[in-house]
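Researcher: Quick one. two chains, 488 residues in total.
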Amino acid sequence: MPFNMLPTVLKGKMECTCEGKQLTPLINQAVQTGITIEDIEWLDEHRIRLSIPLSQFFSFYKLMRQAGNRVRITKREGFPFLWKRIKKRKFFVLGFILFFILILLFTSFVWNVKIEGTEKIPSRHVQAMLKKQGIYPGQWKMRLPEREEVQHQLLSQLPQASWVGYRVEGTRVVVTVVEKKLAEPDSDAVPDAGPVHLVATKNALIYDMQIERGYPLVEVNDVVQKGQTLVSGIYGDVEDSKSRRIVGAKGKVWGEVWYESSVVIPLERKRKVYTGERDRAQYPYLFSYVVKNPFVKEPALKNVDVIEHFHFLKLAEWTLPLGWVVVEKLEAEWMAEKLTVNQAVQEGLVHAKEDLLQKIGLDGRILGEKVLQKRLENGKVYLKVHFDVIENIARIQPILQGE
Amino acid sequence: MRKWVSDWFDLPVHVTGDTPRIEMIGTMAMQVENYLQLEKFNFSELQIKVKDGILEIKGEQLKIKAIDPEIVLIEGQILEIRYKK
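Model:
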C-alpha cells in the first residue's frame, strides 16, 4: 500500500501551510512529478495545509516558490528530526542507556545469600559449603551451578539435614535447610542419677514399682517409713566389698499416701463487677507529664479502674519522650454473692484437690477423697478432707563409699 | 478493446487498463485509483478527472488524506458522487 504510515514516520514528514492562488493545479503538478502529499486540508480560501515526506519536500518547495506561493513549515515529524534533537542532548541519552546497562549489570550478580531454617547446623558452615560450589555474594548469576546439583551436593554434605532447597530470587539466593528432627527424649524416663539408692520421701504403702536398675528391698503392699531405702544401688553382697558391684538404682516407686487438708470457705463473698459505664480519653504526654485540659469536666464515675496505654512517638529507632496516653476509666461495683453450704463444700473440695495435685506433681493421682469434718462457724464453712493419693515416693540418695 | 480483453482473458476490468476504480467506506472515506488529475478542490466539492470524464464528489469538510500519482484518498462527509461527461 502506498500510504503506509511507517515509512513516512521513519523518513520524516514536514507539515506546512501554503498560501497563494491556483493551489489545486499546483498540487496536480507536484503529484505528477512523483511527490506523495498527505493530509491536504483547506484552512480558508487561499490557504491549504499539507504534509510531504522529507525527501520530497525540497522539490515541492521549489515548485511552490516558482509559482510565487508562500510556504510556511508548521511541524516536523518523524525519526530524522528526533535524531537531530537526540544529537543535541547526547548526555541525556547516554545516561538513559547507561541506566539500563547498569540495571542489567547489577541484576546479573548475586547480592546476598540467605540461609533459612538452620537451627542446629551453623549457617556459617552452610555458607562455606555454598562458596565452595561457587555460590557467594558477588558471583555472576550466569555462573551459578544447576539447582539439582547444588541440592544434591548440600544434602550429601549435611548429614543433619533431611532436605535442602535452593532457589534464586532476583539477586538473592535462598537456601532452605530442613533439619532432621531427633527423637525427643521420653519425658517419662527417669534421669540416670549415677550411684544412688532410692529412699522413701514419706510414710506410705507401696502401690506399684517400676525399677529399671537396682535391687528392690521392698515389695508391693509393704508399708515403708520415711527415709527407708526402697531400692538398693548395689548388686551382690553388701557386706563383701569384693563381690559387691555399685550400679546405682533407677526407677519409680509409687506409694499410697494419705493427706489431710483443711479448707475454709466464706459463705459470702464480694466480687468486683464492671457496671459498663466507661470513659475514654486521650491526653498528650510530655516528658513523663500527662497534660490534661483543666477546663474539660470529666464524667463523674465512682470506683473507677483506670487503664492507661502509653504511645510513644518514634523517630527512626529513637523513642521520643513525647506521645499520647489513652486513659480508659471503667466504673466498677462490688457485688455480694451468697453460697449455700453445699456449694461451699463443693468449691472447697475443688480448691483442695487443685492444691494437692500441684503438690504431688505430674506422676501422682488422687484415688479417693472423704470429707471428715464439716463445721459452720461465723458465716464460714470449715472443712477437713481426707485424700487417698498415689505418688512417686522415691528419692535419690548417693551411696556413701566409706560405708 | 479493453472490454474485449477482460472478457477474453477473464480478468477484472480495472487490472487491464486505466479505468478508474472507486472504493468507498461508508460515507466518510473514499479511494479513487487510476485518476488523471484534480480539477477542483475545496471544502465542499472535489472534482477528479478520470478517463471517462469527471468524477464530481460533493460533501462537507472534504480533505485529501493522501495523494500520489496512482491513488487519491478522500476523507470527510461525502454526500453526492456523480459522473460528468
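Chain B has a mean pLDDT of 85.
Researcher: Thanks, that's what I needed.
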